[in-house]
Amino acid sequence: xxxxxxxxxxxxxxxxxxxxxxxxxxxxxxxxxxxxxxxxxxxxxxxxxxxxxxxxxxxxxxxxxxxxxxxxxxxxxxxxxxxxxxxxxxxxxxxxxxxxxxxxxxxxxxxxxxxxxxxxxxxxxxxxxxxxxxxxxxxxxxxxxxxxxxxxxxxxxxxxxxxxxxxxxxxxxxxxxxxxxxxxxxxxxxxxxxxxxxxxxxxxxxxxxxxxxxxxxxxxxxxxxxxxxxxxxxxxxxxxxxxxxxxxxxxxxxxxxxxxxxxxxxxxxxxxxxxxxxxxxxxxxxxxxxxxxxxxxxxxxxxxxxxxxxxxx
Amino acid sequence: xxxxxxxxxxxxxxxxxxxxxxxxxxxxxxxxxxxxxxxxxxxxxxxxxxxxxxxxxxxxxxxxxxxxxxxxxxxxxxxxxxxxxxxxxxxxxxxxxxxxxxxxxxxxxxxxxxxxxxxxxxxxxxxxxxxxxxxxxxxxxxxxxxxxxxxxxxxxxxxxxxxxxxxxxxxxxxxxxxxxxxxxxxxxxxxxxxxxxxxxxxxxxxxxxxxxxxxxxxxxxxxxxxxxxxxxxxxxxxxxxxxxxxxxxxxxxxxxxxxxxxxxxxxxxxxxxxxxxxxxxxxxxxxxxxxxxxxxxxxxxxxxxxxxxxxxx
Lengths: 313, 313
Known about the structure:
The structure is a homodimer.
Chain A: H1 2-5, H2 7-10, E1 29-31, E2 37-47, H3 58-75, E3 79-89, H4 94-108, E4 115-122, E5 126-136, E6 151-155, H5 160-169, H6 177-187, H7 193-199, E7 205-209, H8 213-224, E8 227-231, H9 239-244, H10 250-253, E9 260-265, H11 270-280, E10 284-291, E11 296-299
Helix pairs in contact in A: 3-4, 3-7, 5-6
């Protein structure tokens, strides 16, 4: 059966390292937990035509299907450990599978994260990854622990993948290195795993920015029963993004696929976070403050409007 | 967004019981491992038109999408603990979702197994469940530990789901209670979880019968580097299945979807296994023996033929 051949592309991704552990090859995988740890489990699905364009590069699809899950693990402050792949595809196309599995491999490599199992079925292209991680007991970063007066931060820059998507839909022609970069950000997101690990016992709450900065920050606010004030001028937007979102900056703040971390921390941590940014070589911008009044206000938007009520919420 | 409403069907399935654990509601789920345990992870995907008929009852689809995973956990001798759901569906149809989630709920209930997360996306109907379980360290049942001279057993009866599939494809008309039962076996398989738990430290190897008895037993043989001899007369086939497979009994042994356990044990365990069958109220038949010579021989088949070489292998 041609589908049996598929395994050959995934077996090399399945090396476990602990004695007594098992990846692919039995009814299930077998994993020994580290001492005093909690398991973090996340699942994200990518569907052709919904989460990526049908003609997308299979290497990028493989990369992204794991990276979006790594981003969720990062937001929990967890150390990526292993993942499963449920892959549904119309036919066993060797060049596609070779590139797809290479994308997965390269994305997993920095974490020595084995593919421990899954299922391959025939059907319309759909990729679902369940990624798992370990975090010391009680140290996971949660959405619900933001405190009144905390600073709000975001890593990297916002809206680039949104610009990238617009460019990809228009045929992928770019006219500047910033636009090239925006396309790369869309196709090969870099999960902020090292940042997430460093934020344990430092951030009060965290979330990954996958649905847009405002929508995701709003999840923190709802889980913590608090509100927030952001300063548009402090939100990191590249010139290309500013240019794209000129008429309506909120479209950059509502664009998805950033895979940055948004987090809160006590103001007495400002220096530590500044140092961390230097250490990781990753910009971290302080963009606002947690306040008592519910809602999310972005100062600097026309009319200083309360952004609750936008489609996302 | 209509897809946000979907959560309402799944939230009630997500109650965790340990303090400090989290199911749905953050970037990921958070689970505390029991002491001295290993984690077992399995993933099975059901695709419309491939694993179930497009017109199938959504309650049954929900039930089966979890049950097939429970069956893999059972084959590892593991205690089901929690599961994630990656659900891709063309539209948010409330009656379908209500029935589907009820099927999941009812299947998970005996194990108090919460739904801890997942992803819901729009696309062609595809259901992927990752189910997880705990097993005491070193006690998981593996495929690779069958020993020369071991007895081979199978629980329940074989080929009923195969008959059921034939009946379902023909429009679901049945003419006997045995045929009714065959349809039920197809649509609402019962994973042999209690049997799997009881087989720890008793069976030498185990697998769940999902691709057909011969194909699955062959996985044990290959993993253990041994062969087997089965006795057709000892393989549990109902009269309805015998009748269906009269011309070619091997079609019952190659039919999928049985979700029984096939396992091996030392002959000195015969009485213990007989008692266990009584205790569980589940037939367990001794159907053959592990032998040195590679291959799988079924005595009683026309020509006593070595079944290696059939399509499945």
